Amino acid sequence: MNTEECDWDTCCRAQQTITHGTFSKERFIRKRVTDLHRGYQGGKTLANQDPLTSLSPAPSGSMEPASLKGAALRPSSLYHGLNHYNARVQECQLAITSIPRRAVGASHSPENAADTLDQSARASASKPRKFQPRFKNETPKNVCKFYYNTGSCDRDRCTYRHTEPANSRFAQHTESNGGPSEIRRGDDMAIFLRPAEFSAVTPSDALHQLSVLFAPTTKFTKPLQIKKVVNLLTNAGLRDGTWNSGLSTIEKILTFDPVVVQVNASRDAISFASAYVPCLAYFVSGFVLDSTLGIRVNHFDRISTVIMTCMTDIVTRKSFESKPFGIGCGTQIFSALIQVLVEYINRFKGAFRDHELLLPLTESLSSWVTLWKTGNFIDRDIPDAHTKRVTLDKLDKDLQRLRSMAIRESAAITRKAGLSELASTRRPHSTSFIGPLTIHYDPAGNLRPDGPRHDNDFEDIRMIFIHPTEAEMTSKISPFLPANIPGAPHHLPSESMERLLDIQFRLLREELIAPLRLTIQMITSDLHSASGKTPLHSLMAKRGGRYIAETGHDSVMASVYTSANPMSITTDKRGMAVEISFDAPPGQARSRSVSQRAEYWKAISRKRLIQGGLVGIVWATQESTQIFFGLISSSVEDLERAARKSPEILTVRVKFFDDRINLKVIEWCQLSPKDRLKTTILMVEASVMYESIRPFLQALQREPTTFPFSRYLVHRSDDPQRLYLSVNPPLYTTTRRSFVWNLRCIMNQEGDLLLDSHDASSIRHARDTLRSSSRLDPSQADAMIDCLTKEFCLIQGPPGTGKSFTGVEIMRVLLANGMRKILLIAFTNHALDHLLQSVLKTGITSKIARLGSRSNDEILKKYSLDGPEGLASSRTKDKAIDAAYRTLRATEKGLETVLKQLQGGPVSMKDQTEYIQLCHPHHHEQLMHPPEIVNSIRSSEKGWTQVGDGSRHEGLSLYEFWKLGRDITWIEQMCSSLQPKVKPRSSNKYAVLNVEWLEDDDTSSSDGDSTDSEDGHKNREDDQAHRLETFLRSAGLSALPPVPSSRRSIDELREEPRVWTMSRNERTRLAKAWEEAARQHFFSRNKDSFSTLKAVYENAKQAPPIDSKSHQAKLRILHNVDIIGCTTTGAAKLTNLLSGTRPSVLLVEEAGQVLEAHVLGSLVSSVEHVIMIGDPLQLRPTINNYMLSMDHAIGKKIYKFDQSTMERLDGAGMGMSQLNVQRRMRPEISSIARETLYPRLEDNIVVTAYPAVRGLARSLFFFHHTHPEGGAEDESVSKYNTFEITMIKALVQHLLRQGSYTKSGSIVVLCMYLGQLAKLRDELRKSRINFILDERDEEELRNREGDAAENDNEEPPVQVVDVKLSDQVLLRTVDNFQGEEADIVILSLVRNHGPEKMGTIGFLKSPNRVNVALTRARHGIFVFGNGDLLSSKSTIWAKVIEYFKRLDSYGTALPIACHRHPESVQWVKTADKLREVSPEGEKLHFLRLGERNAVLMIDR
C-alpha cells in the first residue's frame, strides 16, 4: 500500500464509529489512527511503536550446546518463553487488538502477506468493532485516563497525572505484598520501557500472522515484513512446530540489506534500532537462553558489518534518535549488542580465530560505551534511579565479561603464535616449591618446545577430548599436570578463572585415565615380552581376573577379560555398538548355579561392567597392537541374561569412540577361525567410573566467564585476607528494591525481626536478637546472620553440632523471604535424601523436585522428576519428536540391512543376481532363459496358495525359483500323483493342481451319484494323466523330464552353464558359493554405504527434538518448585537444565567431602548466593589416584586434588562460621575432639545426662595389643587383624547380653579396612548375630570377593543377609559412616606389625579419618589397636592416646563390670576370658522358630 493510497478522512470516519462504553474519545481514536497512518509511511506497524519493545538481553549466558543466528537461534524455545510472556500479558488483561483475525485471514497468499496491516485497517474501517482498553481498571482521581488505559497521551499540556495502573508491566516487578522483586534474565530492561511501547497484538492474532509470514511460499523481501516479524517475535509465542520456514525468515532479517539508522522516507531499508537490534536482542532474552532446544546457523560476518556501520553512525552523531521512530535507549542497545557477542563467543569455539572482525568489534564496542558514559548523547534516559543504577551496574559487568573473553582469546592466539612467555605471578606461594617446578615445567600442547605429547595434548582444555585416545594412553611422556598452588608456573594468567578451571580439569581427568593408562602400558609390554612368566600370561592362563599393574611408585588393579571376540555391530539406545563375547572372570561369575551367576552380576552392577563404564580393547597381532576405547552399552539386565546362558562366556555391547573399529570388526567377521588364532584381543575395564567424572569434565570446559564468584574462587598470590574480609551481600539483596530480611519464621516469639544486609547496625541488632530469642543456639545464630549477609558463605559444623538442622533453617528463611529457586546439592544420595526429608517433615515447603533415580526413600520417590515429567510428556504429542523417531528408525533399518550383509548375513537377491550377471554371464544367460516347461510351471503358480502353511509364492524371481528348485519339486509331485497309491490330498504340496488346471471347468465335486468308487477313481486318474500329457505337449515335451540327482563339485558347476539341469543339492551349493562371492565382491561398496548410513544414523540419534523436548518438559515442572535437589554428579549432568531454571541460591551439603571440580561443575551462571555447609576437618573427598591426594608426600605439596573448596578457601583467608555446640557425644568423648581439632567445641546440657555403658567399667577405652595384622605380604590386599576380630565378636556378644543395646543402630562396629569388614562379617554371622551392611560396603565386598574362588569347587563367599526383625549391629567402614552416629562404637584399627616391628600405619595417619572414627559415639567408644605404633607415627594419635591414658582408659585388658556391681571389675585380655565372665550380665538366648529369624529372650 502506498502512502498516497491511504484515505485519511475515510480512516477517521470509520474509526469514529468505534465506541468503548463511556470511554469514547475522538482524540484517542485519532491518535491510534495517526499511529496506523504513520506506520504505513515509515514501515512501522501499530503493534510495534517502539524500536525495542520488550526485548532485553540476559545477564550471563549459559554454555548450552546450541546456538542461534550469530548467537543462538532456538525458535522452538519461543513456545515456552513467549507463551509465558503472553500469560503475563493476559494477567494484566491487555486486550488491545490492532489487527483482527478476520483481516489477517484474508491475506493467506504470499503476495498479500506484506499488506496484512493494510488489510487490517480496511477491515477495521469496513466493520466497526468494540474497542477495549488495555486494562479493566477504574481510572483513579486526577489521573489521565488516556495514559492510564493506553500508555500514551497526545495532549501537549495535559493537566492530569500520568500514572500506570497497578497491574501494568511495571507493577509486575513489585511483589503483591510490597516486597522487593528481582530483575530476571530476559526481563532486566522491560521494567523501564514506557507502557506505550508494549504491543497490542493478542496471542491469537500473532500466531495467525506468523503462520502466514512463515509460510514456505511467502516472498520475504519487504522492510514492512521484517518490521512485522520482529514485532510479533517480541510479543507473542508460536505454537506451530514446523519452524524451518521461520528459521529462513529470521536469516533474511539478519542478512537484509540495507540496514540504516535513519530510515526517513525510504521503503527499501530497515531500521537498525527498531528492527535489527530487537531481533538480535530476542536471541539473548531469557526465554531463548533458558531453552534447551537449538539449531546452529552463523551469519556473524554480516551482523558484525551492520553493527559496525550503524553504531559508528550513532556514535559520530552522538544520537540514538532513529527517525521516524523517536529516540532509542542507549542502555538497551548496548546491552543487547554486548550480550549477543558474549553468547556468540560462548557457543562458537574459535570465534576470534574464525572472524577477524570480532576483536575489533569488541574493542570498538568497549570504546563506544566509554564515550557514551561521558554524556552529551541524545538518548532516552531511565527515569527510575534504582532501576538505572542496577541496569548500569549490570551493563558494566557484562562489558567487563566481554573484555575478559577478548583478552583471553587474544592471549591464546598469541601463545599459539609463540610470542608469549610463561605467565608470572606477583608473589610466589613458596620459593622452595616454585623454583623446582619452574625448572621442570613442561607446558601443554604446542607450547611445549618439542611439540605436543600426543594427539590429545592441547593448551586449551576445551579442545581436549574427554575420552582417552590410543596415542595418549601409549605415550611414555608424562602428562601435563599443573600445580594446584598459587604462584606455580602455568601458561594461563594468574588469578584467572581459566587457570583454576584448567588445573581442576587436568587433575580430574588424570584421576579418570591414569589407572587405565598404567594398566594398558603394562599389558602391551607383557604382550611383547619374550618371557612367558609375565603377570598377563598368568592371568590369561586363568582366563581373566584382576591385573595388578605396578611401577616404582604406584600400583593399580584392573579387571582384564580374555578371549574377547567382536561378534557383530548392532544398534541400541546409545547408538551403534559392537557386541563382544569374552571369558567370564574366575570365581562366582563361573558358578554352575544359574541363579548364583545372575545374582553375582546384579550385586556388583555398580562396580564391574557397569553401563557407561570405560573399557579398552587391546587388539594385538604379530605385526602391531591397536587399542580402542569405548563405553559399555549393555544394561544390568542384559548382563544377567548373558550370565544365565553360559557359565563360561559373557557378552556385552560397547559403543566405541573411534569409528575405525567398526570396519575392523567387519573385516574380523570375514576371517576364518584359523586366521583368528594369530590375533589376541583383551578387554580392560577402567577402575574409575567414567560416567561419574565425564559430566564434571564437560562442565569445566564451559566458557570461564559463565562461572560466578571468580573473585573468591581463583588462586590469589597477593594478600588474600584483604579480599575475603569484604565479602559482598548477595546480589539479589542489592537489585531488589528496599530489600530486607524478615527472620520471624525462626523466632521463639511473634513479631518481625528485620535484617538489612547493607546496614551494620541492623546486622548487630539481628545477631543479638537471634542469639537470645530464636530456636538457634548462639553459634547457629551467628552462622545464619553470616549466611544472609555474605554472597559466598562457609559454615563449618564439627561433629554433632547440627549442620543439617542449620541448613534446613537457612532454607526456611530463604523461602520465607521469596527466594523461590534453591539448588541443593550433596555428594551422596544419602546426605541429599536426609536433608530433603527434613524439609518435608518440618513443613517448610512441599514444592521440591528430586533429580535422579537413586533415592531409596519411598516418600522422596514421589518427588522424583522422572514421575511428573513422564506424565507431562505423555500429555503432549510433539510432531517434531515423532518425525525425529521416524527418521531414526528408517535410518536404523537401512543400517541394519547393510550390517547384516557386511557381517555374514544374507546377501540381497538383487546383489546376487548382479554378481552372477557380472562374473558368470553364461550361467546368467541360461538362468534368464529357462526351458519352456519352467515358464509354464511359473505361470501356473502365480497367485497360488500353498496348502498346509498358507504362505504365498507370488513374485518369485527366476533366480529364486531356480535356487529353491521349484521346477524339480513340481516334477516330483507329478510323479508322486501318478503312483497307484495316491497320497492324501492335504499332504500334496501341489494338490491344488488337481483342482484348478487338471480338471475341466464343468467338472463338479458334487458327482456323488456314482456307486462304483473304484471306477470313479480310475476315471479321475485317466483324466489327470490326459491333462498332464496335454500340459507337457504345450511345453514341447512328450513325457515328464527325469528328476536330476547329480552331485558334481563346485568347480564343475562353475564350468557348466546349464543351470536348469542341476540337481537340488547342486543348486543349493552353487547358490551358497555365489552368495559368499557376491558378499566379498560388494564388500567395498557396502562399506561405503555403511559409513554414509552410520553418519546419518548418528546425526539422527543426536537430533535435538528428542532429548531437548524432554528437557523442555522438565523445565516447565522445575519452574514451579522451590527446591531442586540433586547430587553433585546430577548437577553436572544437568547443567543445561539447571541453567534454564535459573536458581539464585546454591546450597552445598557436606561440602568438605565434595571435590572442588564438583563444586565448579555445579555452579550455573544464575547463582547469586553460595552456601557451603560441611567440615573440612572430617573426611576429605574420595579419589582413586593416591599421588594426587593430600595424604601423599608430593600430592600434599603440589596437587592437593582432594582438598575441598571449603578447606582451600579457609586456608587462603576466607572467614568460616563455626558451629560449636555439640549434642551427640558424652563430655568424655567430645573432649577427644576438643583436645585435637576443635578447641572451641562446647557441650549441650543434654549430653551430660547420658548413662554409662552397661557391662563395662569405662564408657571409653583403648585396648592396646601387638597381635600382627594379616595381608601384609601383599600390599594390594586389604588388611585384617584376626585377634581384633575375635575380641570384637566377644565384646559385641557381651554388650547384646546387657539388654540395653538390642535396637537397630545401638551398636556399630567401624573398620578402617574393607578386609577387616569382610572377616568380621563372617564371624558375626557364624555366631548368629544379626547385622546390617551399608550398601556401599556391600558392593565393594562383592567386587573384591568376586574373583576369590579360583574354581567352581570352592565355596563362594558368605552372602550378606539383611535381617529385619532384629537389626542389632551395624557393620561399616569408617569412610561410609560420616554423618551418622550410634550409642556405642567399636573401632577396629587393624594395623599392627607385632611386638618387635613398628612398620607403617597407612591412612590411619589421616587426621580427617581419625576425627570421623572417634566422634560417632553417643554413650561409649572402644578402640582396638597398637597404641605405641600409632603414637610414634601420628601426632593426632599421640594426643588421643595421651588423653585415654589420662582417663585411665588405656590398657591391654578390657574392664568388664556388672552395672549392678560397678565396684567389681574383671580385666579381660582374651575373647575366651570375656565369654567366661560375660554370663554375669543379663543372659540372652537365641531360639529358632522354624525358618523365622532369631527372637531375643532375656533372663533377668
Structural key phrases:
alpha/beta; 8-stranded antiparallel β-sheet; 11% strand; globular; disordered N terminus
Question: Care to describe what's here?
Answer:
- The protein has 1500 residues and is of the alpha/beta class.
- The protein contains 60 helices and 32 strands.
- Strands 3-4-10-7-8-9-6-5 form an eight-stranded antiparallel sheet. The chain has a seven-stranded parallel sheet with strand order 15-16-14-17-18-13-19. Strands 24-25-23-26-27-22-28 form a seven-stranded parallel sheet, sandwiched between helices.
- A hairpin with a 4-residue loop joins strand 7 (614-620) and strand 8 (625-632).
- Helix 11 packs across helix 14 (330-347).
- The chain is globular and about 120 Å long.
- It starts with 7 loop residues before the first helix and ends with a strand.
Sequence stretches where pLDDT stays below 50 over 5 or more residues: 1-137, 166-200, 236-245, 424-429, 868-877, 943-953, 981-1011, 1349-1367, 1480-1500
Strand content: 5-15%
State the shape: globular
The beta-strand count equals 32
* Oligomeric category: single chain
Ends: how far apart?
A: 106 Å
Helical content stands at 40-55%
Spatial arrangement of strands, main beta sheet? 3-4-10-7-8-9-6-5
* Number of separate helices: 60
Structural class: alpha/beta
Major beta sheet, specifics? Answer: 8 strands, antiparallel
SSE order and pairing:
Layout: H1 8-15, H2 26-42, H3 78-91, H4 101-105, H5 110-113, H6 116-126, H7 145-150, H8 203-213, H9 223-235, H10 244-254, E1 259-260, E2 270-271, H11 272-283, H12 286-289, H13 300-317, H14 330-347, H15 351-354, H16 358-373, H17 385-416, H18 431-439, H19 470-474, H20 497-527, H21 535-541, E3 545-550, E4 555-561, E5 565-572, E6 575-583, H22 594-603, E7 614-620, E8 625-632, H23 636-645, E9 649-656, H24 660-670, H25 673-676, E10 680-685, H26 694-700, H27 710-713, H28 720-724, H29 732-735, E11 741-742, E12 754-755, H30 760-773, H31 778-789, E13 792-796, H32 803-816, E14 822-826, H33 829-841, E15 848-850, H34 858-861, H35 866-875, H36 879-902, H37 909-919, H38 921-928, H39 932-941, H40 958-964, H41 966-977, H42 993-996, H43 1013-1034, H44 1050-1055, H45 1064-1081, H46 1083-1101, H47 1104-1118, E16 1123-1127, H48 1128-1133, H49 1135-1141, E17 1145-1149, H50 1156-1162, E18 1169-1174, H51 1193-1197, H52 1205-1212, E19 1217-1218, E20 1221-1222, H53 1227-1236, E21 1242-1243, E22 1260-1264, H54 1282-1297, E23 1307-1311, H55 1314-1326, E24 1331-1333, H56 1335-1345, ...
Parallel strand pairs: 1-2, 13-18, 13-19, 14-16, 14-17, 15-16, 17-18, 20-21, 22-27, 22-28, 23-25, 23-26, 24-25, 26-27
Antiparallel strand pairs: 3-4, 4-10, 5-6, 6-9, 7-8, 7-10, 8-9, 11-12, 29-30, 31-32
